[in-house]
């Protein structure tokens, strides 16, 4: 049976970053810890999961439902239930951050894009915190969010960054909103990653009430120690290591496209196209650019290429603002900036 395109296990920290950090450290224990996380990440990614068809009974329209579990430093999911919708805040900061980040993401999709949760049918958003011991990653496993605590030396935890949470939950949105999902390899995989960065960044901008000009356009700022870097990626200037970290290998345009590159590498190209569109459209990225990108998801197919995405976003702009509109021209020009047409 062919690999099911739905439900990738998608990590915020790419395995290649963990391996690079392992090469750089002189601390034996730290190296083992990083390689273990990289290996487990690769292992889990191999277990392709299928979108939950029956998990979580659909809620009534508009109803937000979140649950947070505590894995108590073990691997078993989901773990012990520690917070539900409308229950009192926990004494555990990670629990509340996971709850609030899921809430901000739900609210953004609901209020700005009129989407009712991940599946548009009110799917309950489940999150597990304290996964394993000093686990240096966070991921969406096709059914729920899972957060490690980080080792406290290189990674400081993942629940504090709303863009990380929205990035991961958007992998869930993509698996439902793109008919058949987006295959997590090649250009469709890079698009899958980019779509998560786009909505991850826009949810953060919306939360902070920042215009496209004011936003930092960074992904993962605040999750790592200064010795590692400042962020995972920059959408404004992909591959600018001064803004991110020393292993950032993202191309900004097709001139730097990496053949058979990692999905987290070539995603720099569509990321920058979104940034260019948002800047050209002025104001807040959630007002025009994000709705255009969101509408394009339903126009994609599982093996969509960058050129398909350029076409879909131009079509979406036409559907929302009219053929030949200034918005459509801005979107087309943005893809030209990155060398896709
Ligand atoms: Zn991702």
Automatic annotation (TrEMBL):
Highest taxon above the source species: Bacteria
Active site positions: 168, 264
Subcellular location as annotated: Secreted
Organism of derivation: Duganella margarita
Cellular component aspect of the GO annotation: extracellular region
Domain Peptidase M4 C-terminal: 181-340
GO molecular function: metal ion binding; metalloendopeptidase activity
Protein purpose: Extracellular zinc metalloprotease.
UniProt-recorded name of the protein: Neutral metalloproteinase
